[in-house]
Sequence to fold (420 residues):
Amino acid sequence: MNNSKEIKKTGNIRLQSQNKILMAASTEFVLQGYRGATVQSIADRANLPKANILYYFKNKENIYHAVLEHTLQMWDEGIGDINPEDGPKAAIEKFIDAKVRMSFKHPESSKIYAMEIIQGAQHLKDFARTYQRKWVREKAQLFQQWIDNGEMRDVDPVHLIFLIWSSTQHYADFETQILTIMNRADYEDEDVETVISFLTDMILRGCGLK
Amino acid sequence: MNNSKEIKKTGNIRLQSQNKILMAASTEFVLQGYRGATVQSIADRANLPKANILYYFKNKENIYHAVLEHTLQMWDEGIGDINPEDGPKAAIEKFIDAKVRMSFKHPESSKIYAMEIIQGAQHLKDFARTYQRKWVREKAQLFQQWIDNGEMRDVDPVHLIFLIWSSTQHYADFETQILTIMNRADYEDEDVETVISFLTDMILRGCGLK
DNA sequence: TCATCTGTTGACCATATAGTTAAGTTTTTT
DNA sequence: AAAAAACTTAACTATATGGTCAACAGATGA
Fold:
């Protein structure tokens, strides 16, 4: 007990610092890109001396790896599963709902992910090649079954997934543009619901489910 | 005549070099980001000595400005106009068609644009605040009229524009991911048509136009 | 109290990079 | 052909940056 308490205590300091660093680093990586984000700028944002940053993470690339790992975890949690028993309508509704909420809740994750892909997915190629490809194949097959059963219109399932990804992530990645165009300073809670119902409506109709 | 010929000649050398530099710079900026793209790397890609790059463009930021200007010109040309006389169906068809073709033809422009927006649109805020906002307002009004006339379903015109932007640009920006997932090396000509017909079909249905 | 482990930090270094300069070469003009 | 303008480029400079190190501080356990 005494032992575990002590471990927890030191562990907390570690985790606290690491978290502070990762948050600061995420912001810097989004704002300045990988090369543009300097260890010093991350340190400044985290209110820690540079050497302290490099005590917790051996080097800049390791910080980035940790940020990416966190991003992928978000992606994984936020994807919202598509279950056979839901049927196409509920499945699409849940999927869109999860992705939109994720976009509004963790825009930095979406942005870091987007920048990685745009720049050629150097660090994520394996992820896309294995995990993601498998995920898309599986879900596409599911949609295809629903199509074959006449439960939804005959639309290309893979492109359908791309459509849902792109239209939902857009609100995170292009936040700046969207807010500027709508002449607003920030998103509000009701925006999430508006977007969900707009996209759900459009896409369900596109799939002949409404 | 002699005079104009000579001017043209020198002008050509200038333009040729500048173009070579801008192409190389675009690639580097996409691949490495603004800070990550070094003048040397641009020089290498353009097969010119570094000092020569800086003879044509006073500094790195000027290169970037020139690249962005080119990007915005692409955006402007590729947006495809939305005309009142087309009616909603043809208008949406034309709009999607233009955007998708642009995405497949000039993915680097789309990528540079996307990275700028994701990073906070430091260099494009004015563009979005004036030109783009006006464009969206105008086109949204047009859609609203069609809606009021009962020519299309009552969907939020602004979000409709966002949907078309996001879903079409996705094929440029997330090229790497899409190709990896589809287990392909490159896009083919027929992909453009597939995407156009998929998105047109989905979105027209969403708008009750099919 | 002493020893050890964890964390903190200023000072330092090697290197990469943006940008300058000066000495050229080539092209254009007169 | 001579002068001027446009272009080319190696060498250099100042600075920013990633990363190391060594000295120190604080907690923990015996």
Observations:
- Residues 105 and 172 of chain B are 9 Å apart (CA to CA).
- The radius of gyration of chain B is 20 Å.
